[in-house]
Hints:
By secondary structure, the chain is of the alpha/beta class. It is 52% helix and 11% strand. A 6-stranded mixed sheet has the order 3-2-1-4-5-6, with helices on both faces. Pfam families: DUF5753, HTH_31. InterPro entries: Cro/C1-type_HTH, DUF5753, Lambda_DNA-bd_dom_sf.
Amino acid sequence: MASNVNPTVRRRRLGQELRRLRELKGMTAEEVAERLLVSQSKISRLENGRRSISPRDVRDLCGVYEVEDQRMVEGLMEMAKASRQQGWWHAFGDIPYSVYIGLETDAESLRVYEPQIVTGLLQTPTYAEASIRGGSPESSDAEIEKRVQVRLRRQERINAEKDPLRLWVVLDEASLRRVVGDNNVMREQLEHLNEMAQLPHITVQILPFDVGAHSALAGQYAILEFADAADSSVVYIEGVTSDLYLEKAPDVQKYSLMYEHLRAQALNPERSRQIIADIAKDYARGGGVS
């Protein structure tokens, strides 16, 4: 396992291998849980990489699956040790979407639909602070500052000189016209958005109001794809108290098809940049949006 692979991805790969061993044995997660006297949810969380896994867990599971190759067992136990290391985001304390950050940090490409605000990877510091403060009115100034710093640190993936994250964003027109902060914050944000949209690895499209009903009326989602063939794509849906990660092929395929419909309905990148520039000028005049 390469040393630069982050712990979230290590856990995910290890979980996939453990699931493969269970399926080869012809056992259900419930049967494994009964054998080990643990909950079925623990087995599921270990297999989907949402829970830290210890070498002892690996040893016990390999025992249940009757893995005879000791080198394989030792290799999986080493993966478990490596998966317990901490990523950069752990330095900021408890981050509710830390699993997503780990996946995003290792992703090769990301497709995002945002219906309400400019997506986090393309936010300016002032816009990020205003959006976080508005969405978390009970948070302290220290907590808001921490979340802003995490958001800005995540942006290093799209600003990297080597192998930057390929980003495709479809923004609903509402995200441009919803005043987050004030007119100056919005002007600065939209000008920054247009600058980023001109980079070769970033594409921004605007979904105008006059499109009407569309395939993503249910709300925001993101599709993460990875360079390693062993890592399946993931659909991420952010929630208020918990997040949803979809990895089954039919689910990913459905959301990918939805995204293709969105891209077809949205304005092309050139027209999108023009709309963003026009609305930014409206904010610069101080009269709000037209």
